[in-house]
Amino acid sequence: MATDVQIAARKLASLNPATGKVLRELDCASESEVEAAVARARVAQAGWNDLGLRRRIAVLRKFQRNLHESKSEIAEAITREAGKPLVESLVTEVLVVLDAARFLIDNAWRLLRDEPVPHGNLATKLKSGWLVREPHGVIGIISPWNYPFSIPATETLAALVAGNAVVLKPSELTPLVAL
Q: How many degrees, rounded to 5, is the angle at CA 139 between CA 133 and CA 141?
């Protein structure tokens, strides 16, 4: 059985699938490092949720602006590591995330608002009930290699706007895209 020290010493090489060239070597996280990341996320989540929806949306807008400004570099990074043609990286990855950010910015209030719940039973007709949406806490996201940016980014944005914290585990085939 491997110890944390042995696991932490393992390296993961990210390769360009077109050339076979090593793009970068990364250390694998040990079990204790993953547990520490989740613990930090748990601590951060309460403060993140306390910001309120208006400020979380403002952060999302800033992310959207930064992504728009960096879209070409990010598409190139996806192409390098995932092997997709550049236009596919841009259209099916980066533009999808920009659109998801726009959707969440435009619809977060509607999607997350409290809603009255009608009672169908005559005995409870005078009672009122509400559907109240609250964050779950820490959301773990495991990213696939074939859509290494759009899938984890859209899931992360949705979780964050709802007040959750996120711990992302990128695919071992495309770890640099997560960076």
A: 135
